[in-house]
Amino acid sequence: MKSRGDDDLLSRAIELAERGRYTVSPNPMVGAVIARGRRVLAEAWHRRAGGPHAEPAALARAGSRAPGADLHVSLEPCVHFGRTPPCVPAIVEAGIARVFVAARDPNPAVSGRGIRELRRAGIQVIEAGPALRRRAESQNEKFRTWIRERRPFVLAKWAATLDGKTAATSGESRWITGEAARLRALLLREEFDAVLVGSGTVLADDPQLTRRLGQAGRRPHRRIVLDGRLRVSPSARVFRRPEGALVVTARPEKDPRVRRLAARGIEVWSLPGERGRIDLPKILARLAGEEITSVLVEGGADTLWTFFAAKLVDRVAVFFAPRVLGGSGAPGGVGGGGFPLGQTPRVVDVEHERLGDDWLVTARVERVRPRPRRPK
Ligand SMILES: NC(=O)c1ccc[n+]([C@@H]2O[C@H](COP(=O)([O-])OP(=O)(O)OC[C@H]3O[C@@H](n4cnc5c(N)ncnc54)[C@H](OP(=O)(O)O)[C@@H]3O)[C@@H](O)[C@H]2O)c1
């Protein structure tokens, strides 16, 4: 039923959607192509949250050429009012004949509704095959996690030597990788709504955790420090510009150090969990409520372990430098107590990229669903 040309145009819609990667959060990336056969009449993509959706933008460009044409869209058109009006009525009104959809809306409450309403209006809807669907779904993995799990998507990132060390025995870790890898790491920061580190990293490296490449425009950015016992000084560089900075601690709100930080305009959340640790699911739920759809966890090893141990890592990005640090006391990427060999998280869809002399390996952490119990 579907011609090769339709696949190409859906693929093009996914490519267009990509242009919104740094600017659309908390919305999904969406691209749209209006075509007659293989002849493209108009293209558009969702550029920024609050701005027009891809479909009405493409329809406006197609103008009087839209009736009878096909719409190729990377995500199922919406039926609900958000910051902008729903897209389905606009598509119906424009007289579009067929709609090709790469991926369904991830929200279980509305998934498939856009498609049903289009069909009810007499429009033929054709859904993509598994390969394109997976590509479109993976493109919006942050948005999907935020919608479906009501928590931000978590990427765990670290830079290691070939023997897996992330700092020397002395604690020195700047810089393990070369310039191209470090630039790529900064670019990663631009696409995440928040960056998070542990207090150990602030004490050792005094990072700023800022976005500095200008890709994300003025989109708000949270810089988060997990500081169980409040060891970090209010004069650390991460707090130089207090807006966006957030300290999360296991100490109670009445602790004088909480008040000292607050007096400097630094936001502090007191979220004590078990055994003096911070309750990670609570942090993530609260961040999700602030429309933070993604968090980049930049270390160190102790913090990364707490995220892995809580099964809260969705993807890993590991920069490998072609050198060997050695040192039995030198930390590796992930610390803590470690997993038994039979229970390690597994990663899939492994990809690698050469960056100067270094490598970036990215992969998705496989979700292990508990096996259904057999009835006795
Ligand atoms: N190569 C790299 O990519 C990279 C990246 C980052 C850091 N580093 C290096 O790693 C070293 C620091 O790593 P690290 O493992 O020592 O420290 P870290 O992970 O940065 O910070 C550890 C501290 O964070 C707090 N914390 C983390 N998770 C917590 C939780 N769930 N609940 C409560 N508190 C939590 C704890 O504070 P409390 O103890 O007060 O509870 C803990 O001591 C430095 O040498 C740094 O240079 C390397």
Q: How would you describe what is shown here?
A:
- This protein has helices at residues 4-17, 54-62, 87-93, 113-120, 130-139, 141-149, 179-191, 199-205, 256-263, 280-289, 301-309, and strands at 31-36, 39-45, 70-75, 98-103, 124-127, 153-161, 194-198, 222-226, 245-249, 267-270, 294-297, 315-321, 347-355, 358-365.
- By secondary structure, the chain is of the alpha/beta class.
- The chain has two domains: 4-139, 3-Layer(aba) Sandwich (Cytidine Deaminase, domain 2); 150-365, Dihydrofolate Reductase, subunit A.
- Helix 1 runs parallel beside helix 5.
- It has a nine-stranded mixed sheet.
- The chain is built from eleven helices and 14 strands.
- Strand 9 (245-249), helix 9 and strand 10 form a beta-alpha-beta unit.
- 28% of the residues lie in helices and 23% in strands.
- The model has no long low-confidence stretch (mean pLDDT 93).
- Residues 158-159, 166-167, 171, 173, 176, 197-201, 204-205, 226-229, 231, 250, 277-278, 280, 298-303, 306, 331, 335 line the site of NADP nicotinamide-adenine-dinucleotide phosphate.
Low-confidence runs of at least 5 consecutive residues = none
Order of helices and strands: HEEHEHEHEHHEHEHEEHEHEHEEE
Biggest beta sheet attributes = 9 strands, mixed
Mean of residue pLDDT?
A: 93
CATH topology of the largest domain: Dihydrofolate Reductase, subunit A
Number of strands: 14
* Helicity level: 25-40%
Shape: elongated
Strand content: 15-25%
Give the structural class.
Answer: alpha/beta
Small molecules bound in the structure, each named once: NADP nicotinamide-adenine-dinucleotide phosphate
The span between the termini is 46 Å
Task: Give Rg in angstroms.
Answer: 23 Å
Integer count of domains: 2
CATH class of the largest domain: Alpha Beta
Number of helices: 11
CATH superfamily membership of the largest domain: Dihydrofolate Reductase, subunit A
CATH architecture grouping of the largest domain: 3-Layer(aba) Sandwich
Strand arrangement, major sheet: 10-9-8-7-11-6-12-14-13
